[in-house]
Amino acid sequence: MDTPVLNPPAPRQPHSLMDDHPLPEFTADELRRCASSKPSACTCSLKACLGWESVSNDRWPAQQLQAVGTLRRPVPHGETEATFEEFHPHGTRYESPEAPIARAFFPFNRCDVYACGQCGCAVLRYTEYGGYYIDPRARLVDAQWVVPDQDDTAG
Ligand SMILES: [Zn+2]
């Protein structure tokens, strides 16, 4: 007879607050609707974040940004983490302001969606984990670059 072993929970890596407060999963349409204002209209400190920019916690305007949803989806069966594949059918790069916002692809598949109370724009944010650093990155959402869900051909 085996003695039942209680598995203590594995120590967890530092992670986004959001894991404790589940956010609604946004579709491409919901994301587009959330970005009611053009990034160029942003008057807050995020106005530079047209492509992905590092925005450390002390620069992050937490008072005016409210987490409203997430683009993260459960990891498919048999895979250990969301894909790192990027989506650039038109030759854009990771940091291009006009890179498509395709929620099935990196880094959008790791993003939470924030609504700016000051200027009505939407901001995506995720955290890059390096060996010795964590690097929160933000990008303003320009609705015209949001790829409709049926067009993002993951898998
Ligand atoms: Zn703003």
Overview of this structure, please?
This protein is globular. The chain starts with 27 loop residues before the first helix and ends in a 15-residue tail after the last strand. The longest helix is centred in the N-terminal third of the chain and has 7 residues, at 28-34. The protein has one helix spanning 28-34, and strands spanning 53-54, 65-70, 112-116, 122-129, 134-140. 5% of the residues lie in helices and 18% in strands. By secondary structure, the protein is mainly β. It has one domain (28-151). The chain binds zinc ion. Residues 42, 44, 46, 116, 118-119, 121 line the site of zinc ion.
SSE diagram, text form:
Layout: H1 28-34, E1 53-54, E2 65-70, E3 112-116, E4 122-129, E5 134-140
Antiparallel strand pairs: 1-5, 2-3, 3-4, 4-5
The chain binds zinc ion.
Zinc ion (ZN) binds at residues 42, 44, 46, 116, 118-119, 121.
Question: What key attributes describe this structure?
Answer:
mainly beta; 155 residues; 1 helix; binds zinc ion; 5-stranded antiparallel β-sheet; globular
